[in-house]
Design goal:
Layout (H helix, E strand, L loop, with lengths): L5 E7 L12 E6 L5 H8 L18 E6 L3 E5 L10 H17 L3 E9 L6 H12 L5 E5 L9 H12 L7 E3 L8 H12 L2
Parallel strand pairs: 2-4, 2-5, 5-6, 6-7
Antiparallel strand pairs: 1-3, 3-4
Bound molecules: guanosine-5'-triphosphate (GTP) and magnesium ion.
Length: 195
């Protein structure tokens, strides 16, 4: 994808109405701090257009990035952040559910998993939830630069087993530091979901 222009067009909180977009949407889910906003920046060829932070819980809204007036990359708020009240978790669930269930333009949901760690119960729940909403999640194993090359296959296997992936599910290793995996993600999005 050649990035000509990007625009953070809509920021949706708990009480906001979801946008009635006319271009396809591709969403990125995953636990807090897994690297969703970093991935979106890498896809947009920007360093810090989407706000990233070492402190989990940075993105608490659904952010719609308009790409070339052609499509949207959608940054979802992360889950599994311990310092969040029960009430906030419920609000988060309602917001995500409203979006996954209600968006007419949502074409695909990518689920990000830190390649270093076995998927958590929350990751598994999120995976099953995405499947239950009728999507075939694509897995992105993030922070690839943090493990040795010789360990990659072992970690990918643990991710697949931990989530109980449907056979044939695509898993793309990715690093926002080296940008490895970025072209593969774009190629996949362009061939599968765009005109
Ligand atoms: P929330 O908005 O809290 O849900 O987090 P997020 O999933 O958007 O994560 P974010 O992109 O803000 O990244 C969290 C931290 O991980 C930041 O300190 C990033 O610099 C770091 N990070 C993200 N991706 C990578 C990666 O591929 N490699 C390395 N080494 N660090 C990464
Ligand atoms: Mg974020």
């Amino acid at each position: 994808m050649i990035i000509k222009n990007i625009n953070l067009e809509t920021v949706c909180g708990i009480t906001s109405k979801l946008p009635d977009n006319s271009y396809p949407e591709i969403a990125f889910a995953g636990k807090s701090n897994v690297g969703k906003s970093s991935l979106i920046n890498a896809l947009m060829n920007r360093k810090s257009y989407a706000r990233i932070s070492a402190t989990p819980g940075k993105t608490q809204t659904i952010n719609f990035y308009n790409i070339n007036d052609e499509m949207y990359l959608v940054d979802l708020p992360g889950y599994g952040y311990a310092k969040v009240s029960e009430q906030e978790k419920i609000r988060w669930g309602k917001l995500i559910e409203r979006y996954l269930h209600g968006s007419k333009q949502l074409k695909a949901v990518f689920l990000l998993i830190d390649i270093r760690h076995d998927p958590s119960a929350n990751d598994k729940m999120m995976y099953d939830w995405i499947v239950a909403q009728g999507f075939e999640p694509i897995i992105i194993a993030t922070k690839l630069d943090k493990i040795k090359r010789s360990q990659v296959a072992k970690h990918l296997k643990a991710v697949k087993q931990g989530l109980g992936l449907i056979p044939g599910t695509k898993v793309i290793p990715f690093s926002s530091v080296t940008k490895q995996g970025r072209d593969e993600i774009w190629e996949f999005v362009e061939t599968e979901y765009l005109g």
